[in-house]
C-alpha cells in the first residue's frame, strides 16, 4: 500500500510549478541585480541615461559653492548630475577601470599632476581646443590663467585639461614658539631654515616635521634648481649634484641635525600636520589643504605663513586640481558648459571664501580682498614662485611608474636613513630604463 | 492475465521512475541555478577573461603579446621582489597563527572560569573589518602620534618606529593578531574531538604532559592543522588590504606584497595584461602549494 502510494504521480503538481516559477523569477531578479551592480557606473546613452550626467570629484572638494552650482546646472539643462566623490587614489583606480571598460564619466576632476596628459597619450582624454576656440576669449582662457599652471594641460599641441584650483607648498610656522625662542622672522633660505630649526628643537619639540610623501620633496628640489623632467633633453632629476644636495639636506635635517622626527612610514601623509597642531613641531611645509584641518583641530593655534624658501632660487611646486573630459564621455558639450561655470570668477571667489582654497586665475589673485586676506593672500603671493614639478612628465605615459620609483628612493633615505646620493642615483637608473635619456 | 500483470509490474517502475528522476534533476538544477549563474558570471567568466587579457599588453590591453607577459614576470626584479616578500609574509603569518592558535586553544581547552568570554574576545579581531584593523594599527604604531609610543614614553621605555625599521614583520604581527582567534577556534574544535580515552591510556602508560601532547594531541590534530595551513597559505599569498592601508608597500618597497604589486600594475600603471599574467602565475603557485600541502598532510595522516 505504501509502495503503491509512493508511485503515485506527484499529488501537488502546482507546488512544482510554483517552485519553478519562483526560481525563474529568482533567476530574472539575479540577472537584474547583477545588471544593477553597475548602478554606480556612468549611464549609457539612450533612454533615461541621456538625462544623467556623471561627474567624478575629489571627496574633499564637495564644497557648498559647487553644490549650489551643480543644482543650477541640473535645472538649466533638465538633467540629473550623478556626482561621485573619491579620494585621489581611489579616483585614479576608478578611472583606470573605467577607461579599460569604456564606461566613462562625463567630467573628471584630476589631481593637477597631469592625469589629462596620461590619458591623452592613450587617446582616452578629449581635446578641448574646439571649445576653447569658441569660448576661450569669453572666459579668459588661457590668458587669465597663470602660465606655469598650464604645463600639465597640453599634449602634442592640444589642450586636454583646465586647471581648477591652484595651490602651492609654503612654510607654516608657529608664531608662539618662534616668540618663545626669540625668533622674530621666519627663515628665508636653507641656512636660515636650519639655524631656526635648531633653535626651536628642544625636548619633545622639533623645529620642523618633514613628510614621508615624496610630493613634499619637490619644493627642496626646485629651490636647488632641479627639474624632475626636462622635456628638451628627456632626462629626469637634473642636474644630479643639486638633486643629491637637496635630498641630503632633508636627510640631514632628520638624521644629522635631528631637527625633524623621522617621518612615519605609513600611508598617512598627515603626520607633520598632526605634530604641528599638537605643538610638537614649530614648522612644516604644507599648503591651503591644511587650513581646514588646522582650524578644526586647533582653532587657537597662532601660526603664520612664509614665502617658499630660497637656495639657488626661491621656488615651490604647484599643487591643486583640474578638470578633463574623457574621450568617450556622452555629454561633452554639457561637460564644457560645467567647466565654464566651475571656473567662473564668482564661483572661484565663493569657493575661496568658503574654504581658503586658492585659484589659477590672474584676476582672482589681483583682487584686493584676496591680497588682504592673511592666509589666502600669503598663498597668492607664494604662487608667484610656483612652478610645475611634473613639468609634463605624464606625456611619457610612464609617470605612475616614475612616481612609484621616486617614492621608493625618497623613503629609502628619508624614512630608512639610507645614503641620499645612492637614492638619487638608483632613482635615475630606474627612471632611465623607463623613459630613456 | 497474470503474465500481463507481471509484465506491467516489471516495466511500471522504470516508466514511473524516469519522470521522477527528471523532476528531481529539474528541481536540483533549479536550486543550483542561482549559484551556477552567480559563479559563472562573477568567477568563471572573469577568470577566463583574465586569462585572455594576460596575453595582451598596453594601457588598453589590446596589443597581442603572446606569452610575453609571463616571461617578463620572471625577469622583472620588482615582481620577483614582491613574490619573495610575500613568501616571507605567508610563512610568518601561517606559522605564527598556527603556533599561537594551538597554544591558545590548549589553554582555552582547560576547565577555567570565563573560558567562553576569552574565546569570544579572541574572535573579535577576526570579525573586524580589515579596513578597521589596518587603520587601527596604523594609528597605534605611528611613531609621532601613535598611542603605543605615548605609553612607552610614559613608562620610561624607548619608543618604537616599527613600521620604518621592521615593516614586514610588523604586518605579519598584525595579520597574526587578526587571524589567531579563528585558528584558535578551529584547534579548539579539533581538541574537543579527541577522545579522552587516549589521554587516559597514555597517562596509565606513564606518558608525561609533553609526551601526551606530542604523541596524542599533535597527530590527532593533523587534519585541523592541514586545513588551517592550506587556508592560511591561500589567504596570506593573496593579502592586499594590509600593505595598502598601512604602509603602501613601503618604506622603500619593504612590504610590497605580490597582490598589492598586481593592483599597482593594473590600476596605477594601467598594464592590465601584465597584471593578469602576474595573477595567473600566483594562481599556479597557490595551486601547487595547496596540492603539496594536501599530499604531505595525507601522507602524515596515513
Low-confidence runs of at least 5 consecutive residues of chain B: 8-12
Could you say what the CATH topology of the largest domain in chain A is called? D-Maltodextrin-Binding Protein, domain 2
Helix content of chain B: over 70%
What is the level-2 CATH architecture name of the largest domain in chain A?
A: 3-Layer(aba) Sandwich
Can you identify the CATH class of the largest domain in chain B?
Mainly Alpha
The outline of chain B comes out as globular
Unreliable parts of chain A? 1-48
Q: Tally of extended strands of chain A?
A: 14
What's the average pLDDT of chain A?
86
CATH homology group of the largest domain in chain A: Periplasmic binding protein-like II
Structurally, the number of domains of chain B stands at 2
Proportion of strand residues of chain B: under 5%
Average pLDDT of chain B, to the nearest integer? 88
Q: Which range best describes the helical content of chain A: under 10%, 10-25%, 25-40%, 40-55%, 55-70% or over 70%?
A: 40-55%
Domain count of chain A = 2
CATH architecture heading of the largest domain in chain B: Orthogonal Bundle
Any key phrases for this structure?
heterodimer, A: 437 residues, D-Maltodextrin-Binding Protein, domain 2, 19 helices, 14 strands, 15% strand, globular, disordered N terminus, B: 302 residues, MetI-like fold, 2 domains, 1% strand
Amino acid at each position: 500500500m505504501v509502495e503503491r502510494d509512493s508511485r503515485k504521480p506527484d499529488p501537488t503538481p502546482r507546488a512544482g510549478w510554483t517552485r519553478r516559477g519562483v526560481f525563474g523569477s529568482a533567476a530574472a531578479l539575479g540577472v537584474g541585480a547583477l545588471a544593477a551592480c553597475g548602478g554606480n557606473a556612468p549611464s549609457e546613452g539612450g533612454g533615461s541615461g541621456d538625462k544623467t550626467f556623471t561627474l567624478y570629484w575629489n571627496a574633499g572638494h564637495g564644497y557648498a559653492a559647487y553644490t549650489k552650482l551643480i543644482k543650477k546646472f541640473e535645472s538649466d539643462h533638465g538633467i540629473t548630475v550623478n556626482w561621485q566623490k573619491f579620494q585621489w587614489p581611489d579616483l585614479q583606480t576608478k578611472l583606470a577601470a573605467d577607461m579599460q571598460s569604456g564606461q566613462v564619466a562625463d567630467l573628471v576632476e584630476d589631481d593637477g599632476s597631469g592625469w589629462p596628459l596620461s590619458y591623452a597619450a592613450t587617446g582616452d582624454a578629449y581635446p578641448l581646443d574646439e571649445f576653447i576656440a569658441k569660448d576661450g576669449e569669453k572666459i579668459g582662457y588661457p590668458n587669465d590663467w597663470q602660465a606655469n599652471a598650464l604645463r600639465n594641460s597640453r599634449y602634442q599641441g592640444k589642450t586636454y585639461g583646465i586647471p581648477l584650483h591652484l595651490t602651492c607648498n609654503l612654510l607654516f610656522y608657529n608664531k608662539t614658539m618662534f616668540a618663545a625662542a626669540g625668533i622674530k622672522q621666519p627663515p628665508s633660505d636653507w641656512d636660515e631654515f636650519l639655524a631656526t630649526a635648531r633653535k626651536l628643537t628642544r625636548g619633545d619639540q622639533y623645529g620642523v616635521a618633514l613628510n614621508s610623501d615624496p610630493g613634499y620633496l619637490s619644493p627642496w628640489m626646485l629651490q636647488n634648481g632641479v627639474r624632475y623632467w626636462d622635456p628638451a633633453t628627456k632626462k629626469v632629476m637634473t642636474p644630479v649634484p643639486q638633486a643629491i644636495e637637496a635630498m641630503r639636506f632633508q636627510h640631514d635635517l632628520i638624521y644629522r641635525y635631528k631637527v625633524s622626527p623621522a617621518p612615519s612610514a605609513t600611508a598617512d601623509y598627515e603626520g607633520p600636520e598632526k605634530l604641528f597642531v599638537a605643538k610638537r613641531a614649530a614648522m612644516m611645509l604644507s599648503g591651503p589643504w591644511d587650513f581646514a584641518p588646522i582650524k578644526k583641530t586647533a582653532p587657537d593655534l597662532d601660526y603664520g605663513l612664509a614665502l617658499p624658501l630660497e637656495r639657488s632660487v626661491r621656488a615651490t611646486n604647484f599643487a591643486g586640481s583640474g578638470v578633463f573630459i574623457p574621450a568617450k564621455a556622452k555629454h561633452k558639450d554639457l561637460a564644457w558648459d560645467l567647466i565654464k561655470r566651475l571656473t567662473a570668477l564668482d564661483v572661484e571667489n565663493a569657493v575661496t571664501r568658503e574654504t581658503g582654497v586658492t585659484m589659477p586665475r590672474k584676476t582672482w589673485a589681483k583682487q584686493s580682498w584676496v591680497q588682504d586676506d592673511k592666509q589666502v593672500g600669503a598663498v597668492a603671493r607664494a604662487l608667484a614662485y610656483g612652478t610645475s614639478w611634473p613639468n609634463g612628465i605624464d606625456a611619457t605615459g610612464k609617470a605612475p611608474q616614475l612616481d612609484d620609483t621616486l617614492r621608493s628612493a625618497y623613503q629609502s633615505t628619508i624614512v630608512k636613513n639610507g645614503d641620499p646620493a645612492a637614492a638619487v642615483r638608483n632613482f635615475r637608473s630606474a627612471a632611465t630604463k623607463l623613459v630613456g635619456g | 492475465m497474470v503474465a500481463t500483470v507481471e509484465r506491467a509490474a516489471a516495466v511500471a517502475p522504470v516508466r514511473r521512475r524516469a519522470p521522477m528522476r527528471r523532476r528531481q534533476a529539474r528541481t536540483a538544477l533549479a536550486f543550483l541555478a542561482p549559484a551556477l549563474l552567480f559563479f559563472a558570471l562573477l568567477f568563471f567568466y572573469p577568470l577566463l577573461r583574465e586569462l585572455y587579457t594576460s596575453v595582451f599588453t598596453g594601457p588598453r590591453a589590446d596589443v597581442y603579446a603572446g606569452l610575453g607577459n609571463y616571461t617578463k614576470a620572471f625577469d622583472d626584479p620588482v615582481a620577483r621582489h614582491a613574490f619573495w616578500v610575500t613568501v616571507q609574509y605567508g610563512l610568518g603569518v601561517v606559522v605564527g597563527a598556527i603556533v599561537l592558535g594551538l597554544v591558545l586553544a590548549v589553554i582555552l581547552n582547560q576547565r577555567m572560569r570565563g573560558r567562553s568570554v576569552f574565546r569570544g574576545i579572541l574572535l573579535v579581531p577576526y570579525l573586524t573589518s580589515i579596513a578597521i584593523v589596518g587603520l587601527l594599527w596604523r594609528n597605534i604604531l605611528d611613531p609621532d602620534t601613535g598611542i603605543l609610543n605615548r605609553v612607552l614614553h610614559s613608562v620610561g621605555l624607548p619608543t618604537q618606529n616599527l613600521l620604518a625599521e621592521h615593516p614586514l614583520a610588523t604586518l605579519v604581527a598584525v595579520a597574526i593578531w587578526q587571524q589567531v582567534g579563528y585558528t584558535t577556534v578551529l584547534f579548539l574544535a579539533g581538541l574537543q574531538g579527541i577522545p579522552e580515552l587516549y589521554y587516559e591510556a597514555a597517562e596509565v602508560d606513564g606518558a608525561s604532559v609533553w609526551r601526551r601532547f606530542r604523541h596524542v594531541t599533535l597527530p590527532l590534530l593533523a587534519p585541523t592543522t592541514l586545513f588551517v595551513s592550506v587556508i592560511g597559505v591561500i589567504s596570506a599569498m593573496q593579502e592586499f588590504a594590509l600593505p595598502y592601508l598601512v604602509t603602501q608597500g613601503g618604506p622603500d618597497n619593504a612590504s610590497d606584497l605580490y597582490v598589492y604589486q598586481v593592483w599597482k600594475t593594473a590600476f596605477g600603471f594601467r598594464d592590465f595584461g601584465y597584471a593578469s599574467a602576474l595573477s595567473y602565475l600566483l594562481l599556479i603557485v597557490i595551486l601547487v602549494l595547496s596540492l603539496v600541502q594536501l599530499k604531505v598532510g595525507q601522507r602524515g595522516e596515513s
